[in-house]
Write a structure and sequence with these properties.
- It is globular, with a radius of gyration of 26 Å.
- The protein is built from 24 helices and 14 strands.
- The protein has a seven-stranded parallel sheet with strand order 8-9-10-11-12-13-14. Strands 2-4-7-6-5 form a five-stranded mixed sheet, with helices on both faces.
């Protein structure tokens, strides 16, 4: 059990205590301890139990709870709070704008213990009048509930990836000699998956006999389509075809509706032996499934082979990573050594800025200390190089979190919005344009602040932002965190038409999250991003030259 597991339990206990109206001083001690444990440089599980009580932020009472978690794998008092909390109240913890104390008011004072009752109360304007709420909070609660309802039954690509790959392999092993390929949204590399689909020559009866049991139920079996479902899991759809129909169905189920309609208008015949031949028979170059979205890609495919689209293997450096100087889990040296082992050429360390106090953001003094530390590491680890960067908060007025004198000490600056995310478009654009026009901004981070299936991004005018970045020589990040994938891939084509450089960045807080870059590449491929237009594909030498050139263009070298 690692520090994050322990901290998560203590944090949840703190929130539930507040929801139940328990002693606020006591609940605060658990949340403070959770924060302290997350920031520890060593794993608390490896400490002798008597040493746990000496950790700053952990007293006698909390220390006993930590020992209980380590010894029993659970926390008795937490289980009791969960058992005594209605499931609907627990669900309220996922509603944007509802903290524990507000949930306490809804539950204890207004007797609301389900999402449905909360939605009804908001629609009847009964929540706005309560102290601490108001019209805006009530409206935000309604919007958050609607967003959750729209997200029900949907999954992040990463969440289903391991199952999809393993299940496909299992089917192929069981039904050797039959054709089985995954298709649909997963094959098209969509960031959100509503169902997993396969095209197969395995018979309906054989599939049912193999898959349907007490845990997996039959949903539908008609017209060559078999649909299965297990409780609280994604739908599994099987397109049952003959061998002659296999590639035609695989093609049809690997396209968006727009793409397929355009194709079907002009191409009636299908070669049955491969997808490649389906395209070549109609004088098109092969279009990978991830590009089969817009109808305009068809005209482009007559001249293009799509062989220059970015691949995971093209990424040469890790840009946008957090160390234990802020809210990351590893030292900069540990991160660098891991990247050296993985064959990367450089690391851009971009810890949080001082406004992100909750993430242990860096003061000016700590920046100077970190830079000296990086200088020493670069001597030790050469030819691998660590670049000095910061993820600098964009403040509410569009200014940045440090004076220019401090910003000038970095090799590059990533600017991002982390606070006051509930904005109208006008306010959001003022902040973004303010950052973009600051000559020290090198990269604009996670443009809309979205968290897929959890939080809508603030509204922005993508074209205006892209145009401004072109004008001011600012790169736009494709944040590769599977929950962000922001900037949205649907704007990549426009960005490339304007000549903008993008950058696939992992936003890594652990060395394990270095591998998130893969998910950024998957969505970048959907937008047709070329290797040459992705900053993190630059070699160390190319990256250094780029930074020098941009600083010269901006007059800050």
């Amino acid at each position: 059990m690692d520090n994050y597991d322990i901290a998560e339990r203590l944090s949840l206990l703190s929130k539930l205590m507040d929801i139940h109206g328990e002693n606020s001083f006591k609940s605060k001690s658990y949340s403070s301890a959770a924060f302290a444990i997350e920031k520890l440089p060593q794993q608390i599980a490896l400490l002798p139990h008597e040493k746990i009580f000496q950790v700053r932020g952990i007293g006698e009472s909390v220390g006993k709870k930590v020992v209980e978690i380590l010894e029993d794998g659970e926390l008795k008092v937490l289980k009791e709070f969960i058992a005594n909390t209605p499931s609907g109240v627990l669900e309220m913890m996922n509603i944007k704008g509802l903290g524990p104390k507000k949930i306490n008011v809804l539950w204890k004072e207004m007797k609301i213990d389900s999402i449905e009752e909360l939605q009804k109360a908001c629609e009847e304007n009964r929540v706005a009048g309560k102290k601490g709420f108001g019209e805006k909070t009530q409206q935000n609660i309604l919007l958050s509930i609607q967003f959750q309802q729209q997200s029900a039954g949907k999954y992040l690509y990463k969440k289903v990836e391991a199952f999809a790959d393993a299940f496909t392999a299992k089917l192929k092993d069981k039904f050797q000699g039959e054709k089985i390929e995954i298709t649909g949204e997963f094959r098209r590399q969509l960031e959100i998956i509503e169902s997993l689909e396969w095209v197969t020559t395995v018979s309906t009866e054989d599939l049912k006999n193999y898959l349907v049991n007490d845990q997996v139920r039959l949903v539908a079996d008609r017209d060559g389509m078999l649909v299965l479902s297990a409780e609280e899991t994604i739908f599994l759809r099987f397109h049952i075809v003959t061998e002659k129909e296999f590639y035609k169905k695989l093609f049809e189920t690997s396209c968006s509706e727009e793409f397929l309609n355009e194709w079907s208008t002009n191409n009636k015949e299908f070669d049955s032996t491969s997808e490649e031949k389906i395209f070549s028979a109609s004088q098109f170059n092969y279009i990978p499934p991830f590009l089969r979205e817009s109808k305009t890609i068809l005209s482009k495919s007559r001249q293009n082979y799509f062989d220059q689209i970015v691949q995971t293997s093209d990424i040469k450096g890790l840009i946008h990573s957090h160390s234990n100087w802020s809210d990351g889990s590893y030292t900069i040296e540990e991160m660098a050594n891991e990247l050296i082992n993985l064959g990367f050429e450089y690391l851009v360390i971009s810890d949080h800025s001082k406004a992100a106090y909750y993430a242990n953001g860096l003061t000016e003094q700590r920046i100077r200390e970190q830079h000296r530390y990086i200088d020493d590491l670069n001597k030790k680890l050469a030819p691998f190089k660590i670049f000095k960067s910061i993820e600098c908060d964009i403040l509410t007025d569009g200014s940045l979190d440090y004076e220019n004198k401090i910003l000038s000490s970095f090799d590059l600056v990533i600017t991002s919005v982390h606070s006051n995310l509930d904005m109208e478009e006008e306010k959001a654009m003022k902040r973004l344009i303010g950052a973009i026009t600051n000559p020290y901004t090198t990269i604009l981070g996670h443009m809309t602040g979205r968290l897929l299936l959890r939080r809508k991004g603030y509204p922005v005018d993508h074209k205006t932002v892209i145009d401004a970045c072109v004008d001011h020589n600012v790169v736009i990040e494709i944040n590769a965190n599977p929950s962000r994938l922001d900037m949205d891939w649907r704007w990549i084509e426009y960005a490339m038409e304007k000549g903008l450089t993008l950058s696939i960045n992992p936003d890594a807080h652990t060395t394990e999250e270095f591998h998130n870059v893969k998910y950024g590449v998957l969505v970048a491929q959907k937008g047709g991003l070329l290797k040459s237009k992705n900053l993190s594909s630059y070699s160390l030498h190319e990256f250094e030259e780029y930074l020098q050139r941009i600083k010269k263009l901006k007059g800050i070298n």
